[in-house]
Structures are given as structure tokens and as C-alpha cells.
Amino acid sequence: MTRASVEDLVLGHVLDGKRRGRSGGGGAEGRLGSPKERRSRALLRNAAAPRSWQSVVKRIVGGSTRTPQELKRLLDYVSREEGVQSTWCNLAGYDRDFDPERTGRIAQTWSSTWNGAPKRGHTDHIILSFPRGVDADRAEAVARDWGQTVFGSGEYGDVWRYVAALHKDTDHLHAHFVVDKHGIEQGRFMSICRHAALNFGVMRELHAEISQEHGLSIVASTRLSRGLIENAPRETEMRAAHASGKTTPPPPPPMSDGERVRRLDALQGFARDYDELAQIAGLASASGAEPSATSFMARLAAALGASASALRQGVPQMPDATLHAEGDAAARIEAARAEMIASATEAWEAIRAMEPSAERVELERSFADQARTSLKLAPDNLLLAEHARAAERSEDPYHNPTLASLARLDQGMTEGISLDAGLRATLAHVRDEIGERLTALFSIREDELRIAGTSVEEMIARFSLAERSEGQRASWIAEQPNTMQKVFWMEAERALGQEVRAELAAFNLAPELTEAVAREQMLSADRHLRLSEVPAFEAIVDRMQESMRPEDLERVRSGDLGPLAEQVRDPALRAAVAHELKNEGDLGQSGTVGHWADLARSQARAADLGQRERGLERDHGHEL
């Protein structure tokens, strides 16, 4: 058996810890990121790079070897053929130049470890191609980095030895890799297939990513993601057409109707992905310093939107080649993402550094709104995710249904509800009066609140929000100095929440405002919630039972809503109240919110349409 040289053994030992990765390492996730990140990167580069610059990584059919003699002939061809730019190898797990005179020795060394008779031989012959016009030095740098990443890093199952050469004998540069498929660290046999850690998709993506790092724009994406439904013509047919001097490419291979339908359906999925990325680019453009109409991100958003539109029509996308000259779209998105995250972190730290006040709570609320929008740009960022999620009502000691509804009414947050000037004035007066009551309630604990890092004014603002984010709640607890204080404060929050509920239970709203609150709670509640679990609505039902005469209650239960006409002015609410009165009289069961919320929305749309029609009639001089 031929032994490795002293040079190989010593250098291999010295450099062992310097290899980028070990056997069984992170695989594609390590350098390429998550599957979603990889998919997004490919689509971004589709929309902003010349379509012809696609990565080409292929196995030479019949290029494997089974004997030392076959391997030597292949190594001689790869390393000594006229037109070779450079040769290198990875014989002991590290990259170094290769001496073509050593092909016989390498063949004996590799074959000495071979066992069995694999169907595809003991070696693989892989070609890595480059676009026309790429200079040789850059192509070699990319090829060396790619070979070491794929075969020498240990991230894809093992470390495999290879001999590589960069050829310039065709109209475009290409690198040959002759790889020994027997791993030198764990003895794993290299398998390049779709479901393995190492596959041609990953190899193409690594080619594109490493090329970008070396300033060369290459894209690794599927034909379907570019809107190309047909398969590419077979390579043998392409060669035959080229040899015969034909200028038109051969027709694509035939496709069944079922396969065509499946691919058209897949195009719609890619179209949705392009739309999502367009929204992200639009957000980045809106937050940038450049004029939005001319910024790179704005034009990228337009290109992504155009790609989505093309794929929806089942036609190939038309990338915006002008964006390619301004840098890598995926890198620009990543830079915008990093800048946005840094700005968000800085903004949150500045908010928390403020003195306790209602203004600080309002800025926290505004930050949560921005987090919900920005989370599309950075879905994995913990800070944004925490603030984008509203705290669960059942676990939020600050949640009070009445205060939440008043806040949503004040901010116009609930679709289908609009307040006239008189009711808005009533709402403002009620919120002021509730604020005074809460001030009196919290003032007797002013010292305790100060020790906890808050104030009376800030506590009123916290309770008065429509909702609180998980990030807000976590920060209010985290600012307590130790674990004991955290536990004490969480108990104090629950106690204060109970006192606020008791205070508001004795507070009577005007009937018009009660109806608005009940309608708001019904429209914003979970569809499967029972009507009896909507606090303001149930208060109206209780009031009707107490104030209406028995004979009027019987009329309502029999289907006559006349007795409710003056008591409940809102038609949808009136119908829901009648339904509850009938159920309580007959079955003692409550209906669910969904149906009545839909009725309220449809009535709101009808009323809005009627107002617009009356406006048009007035504009044309007509009267009803």
C-alpha cells in the first residue's frame, strides 16, 4: 500500500484545526442559511441580475473511475491538457498547488483505500463553469474556495480528497474536480443526490454565494422560479445542434398535461414569494434616506412586483438588469435588514431610558406598531417578534375590556364603527373622568410605583392602551432589580388590575356610548365567543331584562323588536339583544359572536354605500 508523504501527514496535522468546519457539521445551513433565506436570496437575484449568469455544476457522465489506471488517465487529462490555467489539490484536507507529475502516485494512494465495486465507481468528475468574460484569477479564487467548502470542509458528511484544474480551452472558463469518494476522516462514501446533505442544488447555491463574495454575480435558482415552465433541451441535442451549425436551439422535451398543470400551480407559489419580497423592499425603501421613487429598494420592489405579475400569467420574468450594476440585491436587502434591526434596537433602548411617563408608554405602543410592520423584513429577529405579538388577554393583568374598547374607539381601530362629533366628545369626557378616578386609585401607591420604576401617570397610560405587546410586558418586569422584586411586581400588577376592574364596574357609561362599546367588543371579539361573554353587550341585555315590562319582554321573545327600538338604537345590536333575550327566556343558551358581527359589518357597509349614493344625488341636484 502506498503511504501518504511526510509532507502530507505533517501539514495535514498542523492545519487540521484550521479547516473551516469538521465532519458532520452544519451543512447548507452553516454558510447558506435557512431554506427560506436561501429561497429568498435566489428570487432576489433572479429579479436583479442577468438571467444568463446561472450557476452550472454538473457531473460528467462516465467520468468516474474504477481502477488506478483509469484514475491516472483522468488525472493526466485534467491536469496536463493544453489550455490548463492552474491545478491544485486537497490531498490531506488542505488546499495547495498540485504537481501534474504526481498523477501516478496519487492514483496508487487513493486506490489503496478502495473497497468493493461501486456502481458509479470510486471517483466523481465534477465541472464548475463560469460565465463568459470572467478573468482567470477570479475564477480560480472562486473555484478553490468552492472546492474546499464542498469537499474539504467536512460540513457535508466527511472530508474528500480531490485534484482540481482550471481550464481556459473553451469560450468560458471551467474547473474540473476529480474527487475520491472515500472520506478521509470518517470513511463515509460520498453520495451526491437530491435528499442527501450534498446535492447539486446546494453545490450551485454555494457556487453563487462564494462568487458573490468574490465580486462575481452568479445566480442559483430553478427554472420554475424564473417562470420557465419547459425543461431545457437535452445536452446531447444541444451538442448535436451546435455541431451541425444550427442557430436555433432544439425544442424542449415533451411534457404531460398533468405535469404542466402542476408547474403552473407552482408558479403561483413563486409569484406570492415575489410579492412578499416586494413588500419587504418597499418597507426598506420607505425607511431609507434616498428619494423613494429613485432608490434602489424602490426599483427592486417594482422589479419583484413585475416578476410576480409575469409568473401569475405563466410567462418568464423579465429581470431588471440595471439593478445588477448597483450591487447584489440579496446583499442590499440583508444590509437594509441589519440597519433596520440596529435602528430598532437603538430606538427601544432610548425609549426604555426615558423617565416614567405617559409619553413613554405611547412611544412603546408606536414601537409595537412599527415592529409588526418591520417583522416582514426580519422575521427571525426576537426583539421585533416580541413586540409584534400582543399579550394574551387572559395573561395580561392590565387588560380591561371597557378601557380597551374606549381606546380602540378613540383611535378608530375597529372596522365598521365611526363616531359622530357628539359621541366623540362624550368619549373624550368619559376617558378624562376615568383618568381622574385611576389617578386617585394609584396616587395612594405612588411610592411603591416609584420603587418599581414607574409612576402614576405611566400606570394610567398602561391600563388605557387597547393592548400591550409581549415586549412591553417583559420590559416592565425585567426592569425590576432582582427576582424577588420581579415576583412582587407581578403580584402587584394583578392586584392593581383587580382594583381597576372594581372601580370601572361602578362607572356608568351613557347609553349611546355603551352601545358603541358593545358593538366594538362584538366586532373585535373571537367569532366563536358567546355573546354572553361580551361584557358591554351582556350589560345591555341585563339592563333590558331589568327595565322592560314583562309584556314587552314577551313581545321581543316572540319576534317583535318594537319594544327595543327606543332602548337600543343600533339595528345589529338590537337584533342580537333580542336573540339573547329569547334564548334566555326559552333555553338559557347564548349564541356566538360571528353571525352578529357579520350582520353589523354588512349594515355598516350598506350605510356607507347609502351615504355615498346620497352624496352623488346631491351633487347632481336630486332629492330622495
UniProtKB/TrEMBL annotation:
Top-rank taxon: Bacteria
Residues of the MobA/VirD2-like nuclease domain: 107-216
Pfam families: Relaxase
Chain positions covered by the region annotation Disordered: 16-38, 236-259
Name listed for the protein in its UniProt record: Relaxase/mobilization nuclease domain-containing protein
